[in-house]
């Protein structure tokens, strides 16, 4: 995640990088660690990390990679160079409120739903 | 059919058939059992034949020839044409058949009076007349063969008229079967000719032989084959065995068939096919005929049954005719056929009359033991049955070859031919020896018959009183045919008793043989002519010797029959027992054939039936089991159940895809994407 | 072009690794981590295109929304995993196959 954030910086996406750091690493990864913590019951037997599909899965993943790479390398991307902005925060905010208002609101509704859902799911079964 | 001859022939042929049909279906119900139907039919036939005959005499055309044919079977390339052929020979033959048949019909009304199968007898007589005319009128070998068989059938039916008697039933069977043996050869001959020439008609065959379509060995073989038919029908050696036994039939039948007509059919065939006989075939014919003539005569001298004597005499005379054909003088053969028909039928009628009288006399005395046909029981009938006696005497003189009688002329012609043949081919000296020897013996035994029956003291004095002349229906034919035994009828318009020259020789002219290399008719006739006088002298001499010896032995009792019989020893025995032909045939031919038939039947039963037929059943059973198993195992289990099982298998297999594990599903999705991308890239 | 391609390759690689993780790992939470990886790869893609496509900030917005969604989804997913753990006493995804045929 940290690496990804760094990449964002490289891509002049400072705001996104910040968001990444905050949300992904601070929130989601912590959540995952909590989950691991709560469900950790490693028995003494050394089990493999991967399931039986690992061979085929590995092959397929690799194939996917090859294919996407082929596609990437063969395509002429339409590129427009532009100047590096000083900061993107302001534009992002503006855009959120104007052009992408609807997705913004939808996302908030979604968060609400997720909240409720997670709460229900973690109830004790009565 | 435009032609008068053909038209009349048509009626002559089919009228007796019509009579047969009426008689056989309605005979019993008609008054008098319908004999008038047959008699009127035959009288009309006779009338038509006489008209044709007179027409022939009036035309006096030796080249008279009418032919009408129709296509019977047409299969494109393969055609069979049947039809009528009328020439002088045909007309004479038709008249002979009609005349003797009429006499038989009339004679039978008395002879078979009260018989239990009266109407059927007349029906069969009609059938016979129809068949015989069919042979005479045939213009091709195929229809001749068909009628040939029909005549055989009629003979079978008529000989076996009293079939309740075992001997009659066996005799009729024997006649038919012996005939059939001859017919095998006949058919082979016909087929050989057909194969080479492609037609059955005489005219085509003659043409075919003349142009060389068939020749040499094959033609000889065909000729001999055809002659075998004649051998069977005309009772030549070695197929002579049936004729003496055929005497089991009623005497009028014997007169009609076994004297005048049916047996003459063989000679008629020989006369018709004469042109295509090769010298080798002719030799075979001549030797068979000559030998038969001699050997049959040698049996006749010891026989006691009056009809048997006449039977063997017929065989012998037929041998003469065949001999004549073989030596080339086939018109002489036909001439002898004509005269023989007259006098032999007459002799049979006479014997019928005698037997009829004997039957009556024995019946009066309630004697059912004595054989009415045995000559040794007769004697001294001369005064009691004068008409019978005198007419039989005329015919006997004819057959013995006494001058002024018809037989003399015809026999003379035959013997002249034989002599001339031997003169030109000295190697075959046996033939005239056979001929003249048979003539001597014939004279001897014929007069023996006369002497034993009519002369001397009655051997059974108690019945002699009851012997009386026969009714006029029986004496009528006797008178008619007796008078026809005189020479004059055959030599008109000439009156020379020593010459055959007359309407017959003018009208029945020999034609050249079509076999290349044969003697022409002219050559044969010349040769015969030269030998004529010599033959005449010799024949008169031998006839005289025969008659004298007979008279000496039986009237004068100068020679003792018994002594000579003892002296002859085994020859007498052989003669009396017909040279044991029947016994030997039985031992060497019939029994082995029957054994062979048994064996084959055994094969049929034990092997074929058991293994093939039953085996077939078993195989079918096994096949059905296999098929059932197949049905059950393969179809039911494999296919039907199998489909189910495969579906289940596949289902189970596919079930494994749904593991419920999300990761597997992800894998599948990925795989699908990859595949799609691969496909897309192409 | 070169740079863009590089970023895209990185993104592709991350995607593949994430996919591998999703398909292969037995631990449920590890699967979730794989999902996160995939999402992140997509995000990089968006931002890269935004950067090299005229600094169009649409890509940023989208990426923002994706992050939001990722968060929501992670919360719910973890709740589910904890439920599974409570019921089956294991987080081995192989065991959670009650919906198999």
With strands numbered from the N-terminus, the spatial order across the biggest sheet of chain B is 1-2
- What's the rounded overall pLDDT mean of chain C? 84
| Gap between N and C termini of chain B | 95 Å
**Distinct helical segment count of chain C:** 3
Give the helix tally of chain B. 26
The biggest chain-chain interface is: A-C, 68 and 65 residues
Number of strands of chain C: 0
- At the fold tier of CATH, the topology name of chain C is Helix Hairpins
Helices and strands of chain B, in order, run as HHEEHHHHHHHHHHHHHHHHHHHHHHHH
- List low-pLDDT spans of chain B: none
Uncertain runs of chain C: none
Would you write up a description of this structure?
The complex is a heterotrimer of chains A (126), B (682) and C (101). Chain A is mostly helical and 126 residues long. Among the domains of chain A are: 1-40, no CATH class; 88-126. Chain A has 5 helices and no strands. In chain A, helix 1 packs antiparallel against helix 2 (14-38). The two termini of chain A are 38 Å apart. Chain B folds into 3 domains: 1-139; 215-225 and 272-576, no CATH class; 584-672. In chain B, strands 1-2 form a two-stranded antiparallel sheet. In chain B, strand 1 (65-75) and strand 2 (78-87) form a beta hairpin. In chain C, helix 1 runs antiparallel to helix 2 and helix 2 (28-52) packs antiparallel against helix 3 (58-88). Chain C has a single domain, classed as Helix Hairpins (Orthogonal Bundle). Classes of the chains: A mainly alpha (126), B mainly alpha (682), C mainly alpha (101). The interface between A and C is large, with 68 and 65 residues.
Summary keywords:
heterotrimer, B: 682 residues, mainly alpha, 3 domains, two-stranded antiparallel sheet, elongated, C: 101 residues, Helix Hairpins
